[in-house]
Amino acid sequence: MSHSTRRAARRTVVVAGVLATALTAASCANSTAPASTDAGSDDVTLRIAFSSLPEMVDALADAFHEEHPNITISPEYTAFADYVTSIRLSMSSDTAPDIAQFAVPSKDLVGAGEQLPLDDYAEEQGWYDTFPVSALEQLELSDDGKEFGAGSLYGVPVALSMVGVFYNKQIAEDIGMTEMPTSIEEFESALDKAKDAGETPIMMGALDYGANHVWGALTNSFMPAADYRDWVNGAPGGDITGDESLAASTTFAEWADKGYFNDGANGIGAADASATFSAGDGLFFIGGNWVTGALDEAMGDNVGYFLFPQSEEDKPAVTGGSSVAYTVSARTEHPDEVATFLNWLSTPEAGAIVVDNGYLPVASEALTDATGVASEVSAAYDDITAAEGVNLFSDWSATDQLATLTPGVQGMVAGETDPETFLESIQEVRDAYHEE
Q1: What pTM value is reported for the model?
Q2: Which is the most buried residue in 67, 102, 262, 283, by most CB within 10 A?
Q3: What fold does the segment set 42-161+322-375 form as a domain?
């Protein structure tokens, strides 16, 4: 069944309000019960394991507790590098937290039966109407945990992200860029003009993930959205070595060869590149919306934002992105209370907290008061979610893809790796993962 068919089916199908899937973890004490977000009146403490935005999680926990005094959310923060290693063990233990932030290892936990399917809660509460569909699809997984956008729903988002283009308005004015580029040709024309004017066309930090976003923007621009999703989501036959993706990677390599990136891009990280851009160096910075607040504070009215242009004029808007999302342990003794919390994440109250922490909220109403560059990000967010055009970041194609992806992109920046070899290498990682 296609993504569009599944979306239509979700909006029309009538389902029974009964959890049809028995909890599969051997030590789980829960029996099949009606899907409900009735929090009851008993005092309950729900533990949440996470690795992102501790201040946001603390604020969400406090605000939720005010509305539901009998439910206490107990945050358990772990730094990201340690979290991806420890979450497999903690979620498989007899002392598993009730809720956990979704991460690449969550795929394996789904396959092991350690995550609770949430389909019936989603149907009962209308989550496919209150949460962006594209964000929920990124949390749907097949029974073995390897294919996104298929099977059951295993989590909900709280904070959303998308990649776009921040630009320096003064430099844009100096080079005669009076309108935002709407095609690759117009974008490259701006790059040429910036370079000729002695400016850095694209400020980029390739030491970690920054260059991946630039390559990903081009790949989402050139590649048909359905083909890219098949590849990154793990659909049978998904391939990234075709003509469109090769054209995208070739363009990226040509940009490096033409000097469109800052000198020494492979030696600095994305955070340093963002800070350098905010200080006035660079026409464009291609990155996630999470830097909006910092850029707004540093640059004020001098920073703007637009979505990366598509390779074809009539191609719908599409970009890379993901969410800070929460899954539920199959071992939890309080599934309805957990569902109450997840349901609350779509409210404007939760959204306001998300906005305060620099991310995009599930509840778009929370962005109605956005000003400056934040208002431009908000408008782009509305466009991209309306088009259901947020694709998973490429490293989600396999649990260990990042270890090949990042040095491969760095190799193209340095002119040491040709695009075809790079694409074949990340395809091999993806294929090996699905053959396990």
Answers
A1: 0.86
A2: 283
A3: D-Maltodextrin-Binding Protein; domain 2 (3.40.190)
